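Example (one chain per record):
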Amino acid sequence: MIRLLIADDEDLLRGALTALLELEPDLTVTAEAATTTDAVRMAREHRPDIAVLDLEMPPSDGLSAAEQIRSHLPTKIILVTRHARPGVLRRALAAGVSGFVPKTTPASRLAEIIRDVAAGRRYVDPDIAASALTEDACPLTDRELDVLRAARTGATAGQIAAQVHLAPGTVRNYLSSAMTKLDVTTRHAAAHRAWEEGWI
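Predicted structure:
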């Protein structure tokens, strides 16, 4: 029997996935979680064979939960996502994630992937893998990347300025330039996009 942890912040999706996987004769869901914090805690308590984690879960993200789980347990990780950027895929594979699948994957196919991962194989959705091979070059300068890296923590312009040793006005200029290049309206969106692409 393959023991699973299912973690997704959308109750309906998590419940439906749990119910469908429980119909499989060789799979059992031993724990469920709605946040990355709970996912890590449940993994430590229940020690599942495989954790199926939503990449976009709060308060951090499924990848950070995967890294924490993998640092303490032999639990294998499958990340599920609505849209995967190449940089996230690279980081996931470097962190030892065994599977990377879109949320459009049917439960029956996910069950097959779970069995493959339990047997020691890796699975990356072909469309996600293809996008990783054809990713765009980074349009941002090193300084723009520095300020976005600091902005990702939610820091103010003044805090970012202190962290990267620049004047607050200069930081605001770099943030504005990065937002324009990435066609987003907030520095948080710019930082998130840069993180998704694997640039920071």
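Caption: The first strand starts at residue 2 and ends at 7.
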